[in-house]
Amino acid sequence: MKNKGTFLAAFLLLAGIASSNAQDIDKNKVPAAVKSAFMKAYPKATDVDWEMKGSNYEADFDLAKVDYKATYTSAGKAISFEKDIPNSQLPALIVKNIKAKYPQGRIDDVDLINTGGKISYKVDIEGTPDVNVWYTADGKFVKELAD
């Protein structure tokens, strides 16, 4: 019986840690400054869902059938946005670097990330194993995380 309690406590702790990174929130709890900045930048956004990312607000939405994310401070200042792009829009140097580093991998999904005007790319690669990799706009490898 003691093991069940320990297991439950460990499970709840892990669940709390996993959910602490991002938490869905109701749009009514998003500050007016954030909603205003978002609507000004993306007036035609649809299917908007809000999350807390630390102390920031992230909108996950569609725009012209493309998936986007935009992150704002609580004061409504834009921090970053990202959008899905076709694989064909990934810079050739990054494609070349990926093929060299992951010869058995297949590019599955590409996100363009704009943080304060600085462009980077997140690329989901299916292979053995599946990974997510980040590159700068000029093709420099940034990091890799298991998918």
Low-confidence stretches: 1-20
What is the tally of beta strands? 9
Beta-strand portion reads 35-45%
The CATH topology comes to Nuclear Transport Factor 2, Chain: A
- The sequence of SSEs as H and E is HEHEEEEHEEEE
The best one-word shape is: elongated
Helix content: 25-40%
The spatial strand order of the largest sheet comes to: 1-2-3-4-5-6-7-8-9
Average pLDDT: 87
Please identify the structural class as seen in this structure: alpha+beta
Second rung of CATH, namely the architecture? Roll
Count of runs of 4 or more consecutive helical residues: 3
Largest sheet: 9 strands, antiparallel
- How many domains in all? 1
CATH class: Alpha Beta
The end-to-end distance, rounded to whole angstroms, is 35 Å
Instruction: Please give the radius of gyration in angstroms.
Output: 19 Å
Structure report:
- The chain is of the alpha+beta class.
- The chain has one domain: Nuclear Transport Factor 2, Chain: A.
- Helix content is 27%, strand content 45%.
- The protein has a 9-stranded antiparallel beta sheet.
- Residues 1-20 have low confidence and may be disordered.
List the helices and strands and how they pair.
Layout: H1 2-20, E1 22-25, H2 32-41, E2 46-53, E3 56-63, E4 66-72, E5 78-85, H3 92-101, E6 106-115, E7 118-126, E8 131-136, E9 141-146
Antiparallel strand pairs: 1-2, 2-3, 3-4, 4-5, 5-6, 6-7, 7-8, 8-9
Primary descriptors:
signal, PepSY-like domain-containing protein, single chain, PepSY-like, disordered N terminus, 147 residues, 3 helices, alpha+beta, 9-stranded antiparallel sheet
